[in-house]
Specification:
heterotrimer, A mainly alpha, B mainly alpha, C mainly alpha, A: mainly alpha, Four Helix Bundle (Hemerythrin (Met), subunit A), 7 helices, B: mainly alpha, 2 helices, 88% helix, rod-shaped
């Protein structure tokens, strides 16, 4: 299946079909989730109106983790099978994932202030989210600092995979660490049972965020393919004429 | 409507968290779609140039 | 060349280079002691106030000292082509990486571990934490050096810098630091933290040479 979509032509055709509905689904889902969270959900008996911040915080936190898993998978495929498009997908996922990690942290802080009395507490979830932000930043730093595109792609793929191996360990260690410190009375967001009147905007919002992510990843992959075409054309026009079969070969991969 | 918009004593936090989320979401969208458009335009210009060079 | 022979040859060479250069052995220790001195200034002269956090500060100083100059671990050999020669001669890259990391551990973390009781006492730590402190540093050392080596290998290119190494290995250092500081906090050698610390070190010892080899291969391509 991976090799099937390694062909940029096939990918372009698929992306052309997928991009518009994903965009609509994403924006609509986010709008409904936000509107529902703001106006059409009941007030929590414990948190009051502050519970409305759950509807922007939880989908961001979900997407932050999902985007990392996506990036790590794409990196694995790109590293093992030298799959250019998978690399483009991982590259596209990183800034989105980092942005949503940042959003999760920021909305978490804003939610924490009225609930915990502090913008920042060293809560296990917040802390592992912060570590994940650094993992994203490391990945993006590799891509930015290493000038040779092919080399940067492979080093970044290793970075993403190492991070993915370590994420569960980091999560575990941070849980371990915070269970030593934390007073057990700290309020736990949501708890185990969320009423269905509060659940639907959460689910639609998370779905919207995910579709939005998929949409922008695909768009960035299209941009990446266009950029490669541009580079190829520029190289060809700069002088060295490339024979047809060689050009066809190139468009299939390895450059 | 004013009743709906009244978020009680947490209003500042709630509007700030929704506001910053919307800003980031729109910012990502504008940036990424802008890059896509710029690449498209550049590619088309190059292809036109290449074609006219070939036909000569 | 076999794995073990490569490992020992690289270890011997890097250790000799570090000793000949002079600074190699001293740098981490001096950084470590300076950190302790500056920490004391930052906290204030009251030793009783420093007491409870003294072992944690020592741990932090040791970790930072081990990351010092780590970004040079592979760069010199990569730049002067000696890594290329070793690789084309068939030496396993993972053995080279393991040898270099072990040499770095000997030059940085080992002396710091030996100095740690002194530093802890200076910061007003209770004498009964000294043994757990030294044991935990000895057991956790490989985790920091070998995870750090992973970042160093990924950032070894001409354009990688200290920033890249920090960003890449920083998050990986969180778990062993948590477990290491946990040993100190419980003050017991039979605490689960010590086992988890040992597990972190073992994982780093196995994983790091493989990851380093993959990254170095990319640089050599």
């Amino acid at each position: 299946m991976f090799s099937y979509f390694a062909n940029p032509e096939r990918f372009q055709n698929l992306a052309k079909w997928l991009v518009p509905p994903l965009g609509v689904l994403g924006l609509l889902g986010i709008a409904i989730g936000f509107g529902g969270g703001l106006f059409f959900t009941p007030v929590d008996y414990q948190q009051g109106e502050a519970v409305r911040m759950m509807y922007v915080h939880v989908p961001a936190a979900w997407l932050a983790s999902f985007a990392y898993a996506f990036m790590a998978m794409a990196s694995l495929i790109s590293f093992v099978w030298r799959h250019n498009l998978a690399d483009a997908a991982a590259k596209a996922a990183a800034p989105l994932g980092a942005s949503f990690t940042f959003l999760a942290l920021l909305t978490g802080a804003l939610w924490g202030k009225p609930m915990w009395g502090a913008y920042w507490v060293w809560d296990a979830r917040l802390t592992s989210m912060l570590v994940m932000l650094f993992l994203y930043l490391g990945y993006m730093a590799v891509r930015n600092i290493v000038p040779d595109e092919a080399r940067a792609a492979r080093l970044a793929a290793i970075t993403a995979m190492v991070g993915a191996i370590n994420l569960p360990i980091i999560k575990f260690s941070v849980d371990w660490w915070s269970s030593l410190h934390q007073p057990s009375s700290v309020f736990r967001a949501g708890g185990s049972a969320i009423d269905s009147t509060m659940l639907w905007p959460l689910l639609i919002g998370a779905l919207g965020y995910t579709a939005f992510f998929g949409w922008l990843v695909l768009v960035q992959m299209q941009t990446e393919l266009d950029r490669r075409k541009i580079a190829r054309l520029q190289r060809r026009m700069a002088g060295g004429r490339v024979s047809r079969p060689e050009a066809a070969q190139r468009s299939l991969g390895d450059d | 409507m004013t009743e709906l918009l009244d978020m009680g004593k947490y209003a500042g936090f709630i509007w700030a968290s929704y506001g910053v989320s919307i800003v980031v979401i729109l910012g990502l969208m504008v940036r990424i779609l802008g890059q896509r458009k710029a690449a498209k335009v550049q590619l088309r210009a190059l292809e036109d140039k290449a074609e006219s060079a070939n036909s000569q | 060349m076999s794995w073990t022979r490569t490992f020992l040859a690289v270890l011997a060479r890097d250790t000799a280079v570090a000793r000949r250069a002079g600074g190699g052995w001293a740098q981490a220790s001096v950084f470590f002691l300076l950190f302790v001195l500056l920490a004391a200034f930052a906290i204030g002269p009251e030793t009783r106030a420093q007491g409870p956090i003294a072992p944690a500060l020592v741990w932090l100083a040791a970790v930072l000292a081990s990351q010092l100059s780590l970004d040079h671990l592979f760069r010199a050999d990569l730049d002067d082509g000696s890594l290329d020669i070793l690789a084309t001669a068939g030496a396993p890259l993972s053995a080279i990486a393991a040898g270099k990391a072990t040499a770095h551990w000997l030059a940085s973390f080992a002396p710091v571990t030996l100095l740690s009781p002194l530093a802890a006492l200076m910061l007003g730590a209770k004498p009964d934490v000294l043994i757990p402190l030294m044991v935990s540093l000895a057991i956790g050392g490989p985790a920091f050096v070998f995870f750090g080596a992973m970042g160093a290998a990924l950032a070894a290119g001409r354009h990688g810098g200290g920033l890249l190494v920090l960003l890449l290995s920083g998050p990986l250092l969180a778990p062993p630091l948590i477990f290491g500081a946990g040993v100190i906090r419980t003050g017991a050698l039979d605490s689960p933290d010590l086992k988890l610390l040992l597990a972190s070190s073992l994982m780093a010892l196995v994983l790091s040479p493989l990851i380093c080899a993959a990254a170095l291969r990319v640089h050599l391509e």
